[in-house]
Design a protein that fits this description.
380 residues, binds flavin-adenine dinucleotide, 3 domains, Butyryl-CoA Dehydrogenase, subunit A, domain 3, alpha+beta, 15% strand, Butyryl-CoA Dehydrogenase, subunit A, domain 2, four-stranded mixed beta sheet
């Protein structure tokens, strides 16, 4: 296995203890009620589990993406919904750390990294999902303000965030399609901001997802993040890093489902023997355990490389796609090993099975990840 330092092993152990101690008991209820848990978010912040890759002077821990991956893995091993709901409160700090001004970092990054505010990133629109460059939300400069109008969908924390990084069209006249966009910070208490929660999701039900309408929302031009016309590229840079988080969720979900399967086959008897004594069952466990280990190695390698400043978008896309697919595959096999009991929510494996699916969809579908990898390798 990838060799973690003693400090990283300590973080892994502490994250596991926190998740085991605090998530297990409430996971099913939060899922049923589709409820974000403020206490768990605050507690995670207090224990130093959020935004660890943010510099210390802005409220983070000054650690790396590998440490963040380890924490996300351990949280998702117990419950992906809770893991995602906590990590999503600082979804976007990767980009703020990269391009925000000093003033923006103090105002927006620091409270989020300290667990005093929540944020999100609003890219997706009804007609712009995988095709990010089709975003239609417009930000028109009027005096020293941007006036924003448009719609977003599937935005995590749309109804909870204090502010969002919003991808808007600011330069429709630009000849190059990808140079028409900018990233703008929008506080959610501004007049004209309306958000509705999307209910009854299949996966990560305790993590809020919503749709947003911007009705002439006015923000000062100083809320522009980076330079005008570079928003599309900033979002790609952001995804190059945030994909590691999704990959970590995949490894954790797969590990959790594997453990459920191991536990069940050791207890369940058929034909007079424990399922665990049947060679076919042993083979199945061997296959899924190997997939989990391979996914973990890829995740740690990609995270460590990113921490060295070698941002390999191809490798990070491989990690995201592979770890998500492993989560779906392992959760499926784990449920199969439970037979009919696997379909009962009380045998938590059904929960892993439902949750895993979202990993192949958000932050770039698996098809888009593969296109990205293929194009890079083929020089297209
Ligand atoms: C729970 C959840 C949380 C989310 N959180 C956020 C968030 O915080 N912020 C945000 O901006 N977005 C968020 N999203 C949106 C997510 O990123 C999009 O759902 C995703 O990018 C896919 O877009 P789409 O749903 O419009 O699907 P589409 O783009 O319509 O894709 C449909 C299918 O077609 C395939 N496809 C599309 N184009 C191609 C192509 N060129 N070649 C081959 N296949 C293709 C896709 O792979 C997919 O299988 C979230 C989504 C979910 C479900």
């Amino acid at each position: 296995m990838f060799d973690l330092t003693p400090e990283q092993k300590d973080i892994k152990k502490a994250a596991r203890e926190f998740a085991e101690g605090e998530f297990r008991e409430v996971a099913r209820t939060l899922d049923e009620k589709e409820e974000f848990n403020e206490y768990l978010w605050k507690k995670a912040a207090e224990l130093g589990f959020i935004a660890v890759f943010v510099e210390e002077k802005y409220g983070g821990q000054g650690l790396g993406y590998l440490e963040h991956s380890i924490i996300c893995e351990e949280f998702a091993r117990v419950d992906l919904g809770i893991a995602h709901s906590i990590a999503s409160t600082f979804f976007g700090t990767q980009l703020l750390s990269l391009i925000a001004t000093e003033e923006q970092k103090k105002k927006f990054l620091t409270p989020v990294a300290k667990g005093e505010a929540k944020m999100g990133v609003a890219i997706t629109e009804p007609d712009a999902g995988s095709d990010v460059a089709s975003v239609k939300t417009v930000a028109k400069k009027v005096g020293d303000e941007y006036v924003i109008s448009g719609n977003k969908i599937f935005i995590t924390n749309a109804t909870r965030a204090d502010f969002l990084i919003v991808l808007c069209m600011t330069n429709p006249e630009s000849i190059k399609k990808h140079e028409r966009f900018s990233t703008i910070i929008v506080e959610t208490n501004r007049p004209g901001y309306e958000a509705n929660k999307l209910k009854n999701k299949l996966s990560i039900r305790c993590s809020d997802t919503g749709e947003i309408t911007f009705k002439d929302v006015r923000v000062p031009v100083k809320n522009l993040l980076g330079e005008e016309g570079k928003g599309f590229y900033y979002i790609m840079e952001f995804l190059n890093r945030s994909r590691l988080e999704a990959a970590a969720f995949g490894v954790g979900t797969a590990q959790g489902a594997l453990e459920k399967a191991v536990d069940h086959v050791k207890k369940r008897k058929q034909f007079g023997v424990y399922l665990a004594d049947l060679p076919v069952i042993q083979t199945k466990i061997a296959e899924i355990a190997t997939l989990v280990e391979a996914a973990r190695s890829l995740l740690y390698f990609a995270s460590a490389k990113t921490d060295k400043g070698e941002i390999d978008h191809c490798l990070n896309a491989m990690a995201k796609w592979f770890c998500a697919e492993v989560a779906v595959k392992v959760a499926d096999e784990a449920l199969q090993l439970h037979g009919g009991y696997g379909l009962l929510e009380e045998y938590d494996v059904a929960h892993y099975y439902r949750d895993a699916k979202v990993l192949e969809i958000f932050e770039g579908t698996k098809e888009i990840e593969k296109i990205l990898i293929g194009r890079t390798l083929l020089g297209r």
